Amino acid sequence: MSASLCAAVSIVLVHGAFADGSSWSDVIAALQARGCRVTAVQNPLTSLADDVAATRAVVERQPGKVLLVGHSWGGVVVTEAGNLPQVRGLVYLSAMVPDSKESAAGMLERLGAPMEGMAPDSQGRIWLDDPGIYGKVMAADVPASRVHVLAATQQPIAACVFGEAVSRAAWHDKPSWYLMTANDRALPLMVQRRLAEQIRADSVLVQSSHMSLISQPGQVADFIARAAGSLP
To answer: Domains of the chain, with CATH numbers?
Structure first.
């Protein structure tokens, strides 16, 4: 993708649970090297409405058309926030993609992969701050030293968000792309395939854990850049 084409699109990156905007650092560097305009959202992870509001605030600051990119839980966020007219396309990275009037938990139940093993604390937050568990679930192909940093900087997510439904799924109206991760222990590949088919996404499969944006930033940046170059 040429720098001129990339410069015509604003790419907005939306992180998922147990992460923050810095999880996109390597992807951002790779996209900026291509001349892309890139901004990462900082989701509070306190409710779907709060995360959508944070994402909309970033989208509304961008000049021209926007490509909205969501990883994991961020897929639910961009499915709602993507209804903004400025958003011309959606990219999903091993992401949850509910339908209209559907929650993340409802989507997983429908696809035969109900949420399990995510017990909230007394304040209703779910944490993934143990490096051993983080590595096993999220980042099996990431060096241990980086996993320790990811676990130290993870943000807990409010358990209630997984039951909160989107209003209208933006993928019904916008072109979509889906990057599937073959060695994912957080969101089964079977579920990712079903979702990519459901939204009729242009999809690709990479050999990666759930955290492809950390372990395979070059491939992720290439995929996002190709999507940006394909926007109407």
So the answer is: 3-229 (3.40.50.1820)
Give the three-class secondary structure for 147. Answer: helix
- pLDDT for 4-53, tens place per residue? 567 789 999 999 999 999 999 999 999 999 999 999 999 999 999 999 99
Taking the mean position of all CA atoms in its chain, how far away is CA 34? 21
CA dist 151 and 148 (Å) reads 5
Model pTM score = 0.96
Question: Tell me, what amino acid is at 32?
Answer: Q
Is the Cβ–Cβ distance between 214 and 150 less than 8 Å? yes
Report pLDDT digits (tens) over 49-85.
999 999 999 999 999 999 999 999 999 999 999 999 9
Residue 70's φ and ψ, nearest 5 degrees, are -125, 135
Element (H, E) at 190: helix 189-198
Q: CA torsion angle for 101, 105, 110, 116 (degrees, to 10)?
A: 180
Report how far residue 36's alpha carbon sits from residue 186's, in angstroms, rounded to the nearest whole number. 30
